[in-house]
Amino acid sequence: MEPVHKPPPGIVLTEAQKKRRRERSIAIAVALGVLVVLFFAVTLVKGPAVLHRPM
Known about the structure:
By secondary structure, the chain is mainly α. The protein contains one helix and no strands. It has a domain at 19-43.
């Protein structure tokens, strides 16, 4: 039976880097959510006319 070799750990982030990554991810998620709500609101304001446009 062969001995199991673990690969080298690669890049290991510090706690500060992990915290910044999490904050950045949350900021991106919030911005994306705001865009979705904005597009939805604009669609509601325009009403059904948004579907009836000339080709």
